[in-house]
Amino acid sequence: MACCFLLCFLALTGWAQSARKLSQVKTLYVESLGNGGEAKTVRDDLIHRLRKASTVRIVSAPGEADAILSGTARIWSIGYISLNPRSRNDLQAVLEGYLSAEIVGRNHSTLWSYLVTPSHFPWGGVPDDLARQLSARLLAAIRNGGEAEPSSSDLPEGAPVALKGAGASFPAPLYQKWFEAFRQEHPAVNVSYQSVGSTEGWAELRAGRIDFGASDFTAQGQPSPNKAFLQLPMVLGAVVPIYNLKGLHRRLNFPPAVLAGIYLGEIKNWHDAEIRKANPGANLPDAEIAVIHRSDGSGTTFVWSDYLSKVSPQWKLRAGNGETVAWPVGTAAERNDGVASAVERTPNAIGYVEFIYAIQHQLSYGAVQNAEGEFVKADIASVMAAARASAAPDEDLRASITNPPGRDSYPISTYTWLLLPQRIDDKNKQAALVELTRWMLTTGQRSCSSMGFAPLPADVVKRALQIVESQN
Fold first, then answer.
1. Largest alpha-carbon pair distance within the chain?
2. Residues 390, 415: contact at Cβ < 8 Å?
3. Which helix (H) or strand (E) holds 78?
4. What contacts 219, CB < 8 A, 6 or more positions away?
5. Kind and range of the H or E run holding 69
6. From CA 454, how far away is CA 447, in angstroms rounded?
């Protein structure tokens, strides 16, 4: 998993970077973005655009830079189309991909991160499109100077501390990355995390077998809310419909009624009139839809079913929402990785996963029609738009943001939460857990976007930090 993204900087000899904040970056070195000609093309295009903008000076060696841009560019073919309808010889590849990047400064600290995927109409080609999007985001961030403050450690020196966590698979890729980075700053604290699903995470925490949990349940989704535990938002993410259709060379659009109809078993064939209506001209097969859903208690299922319950009265009546539901149709798979793998190996399949699992498995994922009638694909910008358009989180920060208003909002967006005991008898563990949480809400926010997650709104971070500080 880590090889898919940012194994940054360990191979560098000598660390000359001095920038502590993004606004201090005046000189930048752009590392290799991966193997292959496409990655080199993306890097060359990115360097060209950054040089043209003149906001930062691009240098030729790491030792000359205030900070380093490191990342991964991957582009793959999803098939071929003919540019000449009368000939099958004039074929052009249809490409998908992503560009994930981090800006890293002094002491290997992440100053900024982002992930972009191809635009709907990448006129200059996918490599140029990815470079254009990332350079625009980076230059805007440098100009705006909007950056989270780094955490200031109150962790006392002492014996090594081991923190054990378990729960949601939704944020697991990010959490693994975060906990490794936290260990670099705090060598005495070892944090382990098991991706077992939100329901199991709650069960393990209540049984006292772990020190912290993780869940995608909102307040309404908790089986039995318990004031002995805190539930703090960490990042924003998206659940996306993934599919495996051979010969389809474009992104599908999914109206709410189609998603509900497929999972209710009422829409059974990819050639159904409602799917074709939303996707005019798409080469949809006359084939039965293989529906894949989660087998375990899952926060991803909660988000998916919460959305379907809001947009489909029939779904709400027949299946409802929760971490587990009585699925009318489909084949079960365990965790996000399991659903992604099942769709990957099953022709004509559809499933739902957290956005980053679609990217990592190089799976097609659809644009979903939002409350304003717009078909929007999941990305960092559309998830942040959903959070901004939603009502402010309640006092304890447990709010559902599915199906929000706003033309740019991705409709199956969500917070994901860390679960913390109100009290831990071991004072060293208590101090380490408070410091870890503070770090995730501050320093960690700068690196989440390279993994396909959106940072929390500033007001949510402020409220969450107030709750954390009250535990000291």
1. 75
2. no
3. strand 67-82
4. 225, 231, 394, 396, 398
5. strand 67-82
6. 10
Q: Which two tokens stand for residue 84?
A: 């000449």
Cα gap 432→154, rounded to integer Å: 9
Say how far apart CA 330 and CA 108 lie, in whole Å. Answer: 46
Angle at 384 between CA 304 and CA 39, to 5 degrees: 95
In the DSSP assignment, the letter for residue 269 is B
Q: How far apart are CA 128 and CA 48, in angstroms?
A: 10
Asked if residues 182 and 288 have their Cβ atoms less than 8 Å apart, the reply is no
Outline where 279-413 has alpha helix (H): 299-311, 313-318, 335-345, 355-360, 380-389
- Please report which residue ranges of 246-400 form alpha helices under DSSP H: 256-264, 273-278, 299-311, 313-318, 335-345, 355-360, 380-389
Q: Give strand pairing partners of 164.
A: 192
Element (H, E) at 137: helix 126-144
Q: Per-residue pLDDT for the chain (472 aa), expressed as one digit of tens each?
A: 444 444 444 444 345 799 999 999 999 999 999 998 999 999 999 999 999 999 999 999 999 999 999 999 999 988 766 555 555 555 666 788 999 999 999 988 999 999 999 987 666 689 999 999 999 999 999 988 755 554 555 565 567 999 999 999 999 999 999 999 999 999 999 999 999 999 999 999 999 999 999 999 764 444 444 557 889 999 999 999 999 999 888 899 999 999 999 999 999 999 999 999 999 999 999 999 999 999 998 999 999 999 999 999 999 999 999 999 999 999 999 999 999 999 999 999 999 999 999 999 999 999 999 999 999 999 999 999 999 999 777 776 888 999 999 999 999 999 999 999 988 889 999 999 999 999 999 999 999 999 999 999 999 999 999 988 887 6
Q: Do you know the residue count of the chain? A: 472
Structure tokens at 278: 């939303």
Instruction: Identify which of 342, 303, 354 has the alpha carbon closest to the alpha carbon of residue 325.
Output: 303
Alpha-carbon gap, residue 454 to 242, rounded angstroms: 20
